[in-house]
Amino acid sequence: MTGRIIYHLFPLGAMGGSSAPSVWAAWGEYLQQLGVNTVLLGPVLTSMSHGYDIVDYYHLDPRLGDNAMFERVAKDLKAKGLDILLDAVFHHVGRDFFAFQDVLKNRKSSLYADWFFLRFDQNNGYGDALSYENWEGHDSLVKLNLQNQSLRDHLFGAVRQWMHQWGIKGLRLDVGYSLLPAFVRELKAICTAIDPDFFIVGEAIHGDYRPFLLDMNSVTNYECYKGLFSSFNDRNFFEIAFSLNRLFGEHGLYQGQRLLNFVDNHDVDRIASTLHEARHLYPLYLLLFTMPGTPSIYYGGEWGIEGKKGMHDDHALRPIVDIEAISATVQGSPQYAFIKKLIALRQRFDVLSTGDYRQLFVASEQFGFIRQTGTSVVIILLNMADHPVQESLSARGLSGTYLDVLNNDESIEANQPFTLYPSWGKILVLSCS
């Protein structure tokens, strides 16, 4: 496989609680046509509400089907060339989790008391006559004590089941920034013993990602997420250019690492609702698919779906999608066609996944950089301005003949002036002839 191209689907939202195999099949057909090679599924295990309040690690959420049905779904996705990554929640559980219910019943004598961080001399908002550590002040999400061996055995047993029964190829570790490193290390060892190519990406938001990358294959690249949308909204390519140099340029902090790049996800406003100008979606996605790292599309983003976080929930970010009805209509969407082409180019040119990164130039509304592996050279040029600009590769110190694979394979000589059109760009591949 060339580098992963991830489609992030949130089934508990997108499927509207439907467990119909035909819905899963329709999504599989849609993703195969789109051209991605990996699907990241938001929480699919039995939970109380939104998926992150898990109550059973060994069974699919009944709103989505059952284990046997999902086994068939997984085989169908694999047959369509799609790897499955699961969103795994190991930091906390919902209050209906069997072990926590046993604690509420048996108190200190519970066999599972050490699975949590309990205080029996305090009370909480539920009136339990005890308190416990939770996720960011939410008593509905009970923090797990991942130092406890019997708890780890329970969780690792579930992961082995997901791998053997459903053939998953990786995990997104929810709240990865707060997981015990020793737990992640043991998890990775168990998974890679079964599948050496198993892929683990951790949720990381602020700070230095290097400690997480010791035990994970990738982390969520929130630094570039912010730089991507705000560079366009502020008409200031210098912001994202600075981050790309800092992270991936010569002597960059994460040079050679494939961080998970995204422009929206299940926790943040939809990019179509974030950008000030809709036409900037085109150069934005062009940048997402050509910058170093692993690109991820959040479902519906490829046809410009909108949504903003609510005051008390994220329902607007995780809407129901009738994929059987919409898959035909989006085929005519210019944005869908553009992103489908970017996916195909990413698959075609491995240098976009593995190549080094070097900035060519940066201005407020124009930006250029080079991806290179050996003799494979690709130049990416972007223009966010509302007017065309003239450019020349020789003026940037380059020579040779290039094919503009984004724009009908137009041949461009380095000394030949050309136009960068408004809110658009070029992907120039150095010709070997």
Structure description:
- There is one protein chain.
- The chain is of the alpha/beta class and 433 residues long.
- The protein folds into three domains: 299 residues, Glycosidases (TIM Barrel, Alpha-Beta Barrel); 46 residues, Oligo-1,6-glucosidase, domain 2 (Alpha-Beta Complex), CATH 3.90.400; 77 residues, Immunoglobulin-like (Sandwich), CATH 2.60.40.
- It has 14 helices and 23 strands.
- The strands form six sheets. An eight-stranded parallel sheet has the order 13-12-11-5-2-1-15-14. A six-stranded antiparallel sheet has the order 16-17-18-23-20-21.
- The two termini are 27 Å apart.
Oligomer: single chain
The SS-based structural class is alpha/beta
Number of domains: 3
- What is the β-strand count? 23
Tell me the helix content. Answer: 25-40%
Low-confidence stretches: none
**The biggest beta sheet, please?**
8 strands, parallel
CATH classification class of the largest domain: Alpha Beta
CATH superfamily of the largest domain: Glycosidases
CATH names the topology of the largest domain as TIM Barrel
Alpha plus pi helix count? 14
